[in-house]
Each structure stands twice: as structure tokens, then as C-alpha cells.
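Re: the pair you flagged

First of the two:
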Amino acid sequence: MKAAEVTIIGGGLAGSECALQLARRRRTVELIEMRPSSSTPAHRSGDLAELVCSNSLKSDNPETASGLLKRELRLLGCRLLEIAEEAKVPAGHALAVDREFFARSVTEIVDNEPLIRLDRSEQTDLELPPCSVIASGPLTSGSLSFALEEHFGNEHLFFYDAIAISVNAETIDSSRVFKASRYGKGGADYWNIALSGEEYNRLIDFLFSAPKSEKRGFEEQRYFEACLPVEVIAQRGPESLRYGALKPKGLVDPVTGLEPHAVIQLRQETLDGSMLGLVGFQTRLTRPAQRDLLGLIPGMKGAQILRYGSIHRNTFIDSPRLLDEKQMSRSRDGLFFSGQIVGVEGYMESIAHGLVTAMNIDRYLDGKDVFLLPEHTLTGALQAHLSSAHVPFQPMNVNYGLLPPIEGPKRSRKRLMTERSLQSLRDILSV
């Protein structure tokens, strides 16, 4: 293959989607990914698009923000969403995938795409070809982070993200769990462990006092609200987890016929069901403390931990000040940024941004103006968030609050927003 038209740094969700979208548009791409020779504190393999926090891509219900985003991306021809649906595992109304199967599938498809050259090396500087994309994600390497600091000055920001505990399904006492989804939505896809008031309080007391992993001296403790460590939530009040990940609403304990005091849910993470993730149990507890934590959960005393919870630094830049509307550096023409590093938060959001980045690069190479999706769509609203002044700027998941208000009965507004979004997207795609 001749010299690539576009160089992409980072083979995560955004980088992989961007590369595949550019290839679909007949652009030649060099995709540079440092793993497996250089890894991160969170990744386990060298596969592209590896999911590190959980295996859930969130709800596929059309009247949720996450479900609406997926419908928009289907209309836009999202490649990674197509792959995710082939890797789907049972998770109620959520789209959850077998992580290894999904990442392996993305890697194989990229490897087999003749317009993409995959380079397994670490990019340590910004000495890049004229049209390049930084999609290195929240776990950007130290050397590249330093290069970005030099490029942008002091405008580098960071927050912390946490990974939940995953266990071997065969090592759980099945007599203490029941399968169900809240309110019966999507089938009996979650494993549920009912907690009595005494068991719940014992768990909360432990989370208050359990030893945490030490952070390095230069790292300030700042967490993203959508992915708080379980012990941080517990410290906000003894009932906080009962109104969060451990809420019992919509579930009935088959032993008592009553709603439990609290419920711990486990979600299938592999196609064969061998690995289960504790929903909401992202943590920075030490590994011994994580084992002790499981010992307090009914049916989990002998559970084998396959993936320990952890905490890591997530890097992102102040996009509204440093990037233009298409997330190209204001300081260097042709240097684009995509995915979580620009301040989108979440798996599907990163994929969405990789897709729109590809659309804008295609236009840029043809000398055309930026392509902005309508702000009535969640994809367009996310683009607008990255270009709007925020003090301080923070990463954003998609949510209905990003969309312009709509008239109508309160109970119908989400449906009306969904219909408006999809129609406006169909209209612009038909032009």
C-alpha cells in the first residue's frame, strides 16, 4: 500500500471505528497501536477495541439516551455496532458483549481490510503526517501525553476511572442467586443476590474502612461521576448504594416473595457465561480487600476473581478551547483528535465520535467544510458539547439534557425526542 492518506494513533473504539469508516470511503489508513508491546494499567490483550471497564454498551431501549444513540449510529452505518451485535450476550434490554470475542472480531476485520495498514508500535511524539488523528484514549502513554502538553501548553486535564470486579461463574454458590431483570425487562438475564438489612449494613461498614490502593503523589483524586468507585458512593451516605447499583426496585426474591432490602447484580461478560461482572463494583480497594469484600456477599465467599477492580488515570483535553468544531487542533491544520481524549465519555460515545471524525476527515481531504449533525440528534448534540464553552470542561455521556427542549406531555417527551432525532437524521442523510 502506498503512503496512507490518514494516520490514526490508537486502536481503541474511536480509532478502530474511524479507520473502518475511512476505508469504507476508499481512504488509505495507517493505524498505529502500541499494544501488545507496550500496554496500559487497564488493558489485558493486544486486540483492538478492547473494552476495559465493563462489557455493557448500555441500554438498547429506544426511549433511553443510549438506545437512541444506537439507532442514530445504525442509520449512519456504524461498523463497531454491527460487530457488537454479533458478540452480544444476554443482558436484559442492554447491549452487552463478550469482550474477547468483540475485540478479536474487530482486530480480524481491521487486519483483513486492504486499505488499512496496522502498525504495532508506540507513537511518542507529534511528528506525524499532514492528516493525522490522535485517538489514543484516556490511557494515553506518558511520552505521548508529554508531547500533547508541549503542543497545547498546560491545558492537559485528567480524571479517574474505575474497573469493576469480574468473577468465575462456576465458583458462585448458585443456591444464593436468582436470575431476573428489573421489572422483567429483557428476560431473566442478570444473576441477583438478595441482601438483608444486616448484610447490607455489614457491606457498607466494610467499604468505609477497607484499605484502598495508593495513588501516586502527583495524581490528584478526581473521579468521573458516571463511574465512581463503589467505596466512594458508600461514603456519600449509608443508603446511597441502595438508591444506586444495589437498588432492589423491580426485583422479587423468590425465597421470600418480597422485594429485598438490597440486591447485588451480576452481568454475563462472555458468550459462554463463564465470567460475570459485579454491576457497580468498580473499585480502588486493594486486592486482598477485594477478596474480603466477596466474602461478605452471600454465595460469593469462594468466588474466584478473574478480573480485579482497579483505578487508573484518564486523560482528556479541554476541547472547546483547544480544538475547532471538527475537533482539529487550532494550533496545527490537519491534526484531529477523536474519542475519549476529546471529552466524550462511554463506549458508544467514543465509537460515535470515531465515526463523525472519519466523516469530517473525508470532507477535509476533499476541501469541504465541517460536517455537523443536527443538534436534535444525540450525535450532533455531543459534537456541540465539545465545541461549547464550559467552565470547567468535563467529559460527557449522551443524555436527553443535551437535546433542545420539546413541547408535549411530560410522559411522551422522550418518545417525541427520539422521533424528532431519527427523522432529522433521515432528512439530512437523504440530501
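Second of the two:
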Amino acid sequence: MNARISRAPRMRGFTMVETLVALFVLAIGVLGVTALHATSLRGGSSSHYRSQAALVAYDLMDRLRANRNAALNGDYNLAAGDDAPTGDGAAPLADDDLADWFDSHLSLLPGGSAVVACAADGICTVSVIWNDSRADPNAANQQFDFTSEI
């Protein structure tokens, strides 16, 4: 007679330790992707502000070219920390131009300010400064400089 010897059935599947290790690896991966996404958002925001600063500086340079004589006389010059001029609608028009520029363009940047310097030889520099602490808390203020002959 053939006696069959019964063996203990083999266990198949994952053990609890394997499952916990797999979940741990998955959690680390999700955290890494989340950190990468946050860094990407900060970088995108910083890039957007830098593009806005370039557009704002180019816009003011076009305004300087349109009113060249006033720019060469220094009517558009601004020092660091100067408040936005208030336009009155009367000549000279440089204050109206700067007031409109501050209100409609420079206000797009967080903490936006500007330095404008035009020399008598027609070389003008527009520096746009903004707070970029969202992207880099260690370097809060960023600056874009644009120099051109008008």
C-alpha cells in the first residue's frame, strides 16, 4: 500500500514584513515626488516674475524713447525707494507716464520698485526690483537691469 505522507502546505504570498517594506519605499517615493513638485512650483513662480520684470523694463524703455527729450532732461529719473509719482494730466507728461507705469505694470511684481537713470548722452538704465522670497527665502530681492540708448 502506498502510504502518502502529507506535508505541511507551502505558504505563498507576501509576509507582513515585505508588505511594510514595500509601503515604506512607496511612501518615500511619494514624498520625493511631492518635494520635486513644490520645487518646480517655486521655480516656475520665480521664472514668471523674472519674465514680468523684463517686460516691465522694456515697456518703460519704450516710454522713454517716446518722450526722449523729457527722458534726457532727467524727468523720468527715479532713485531707489522713490514713491510712485502722481500724475496730474498736465505737462510735463513724464509724471503721468510714470504713474501709469507704476500702477499698471510695476504693480504686477510683489514689492516691485524701480530705479531709472538717463544720462544726457542718451544711455538709460532701468532697474526693476521685486521680492522673490517665495522662490528663494535667502535672496529675497531680485533685480533685472536693462540698459539701452534711447
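The longest helix spans residues 16-66.

-B.
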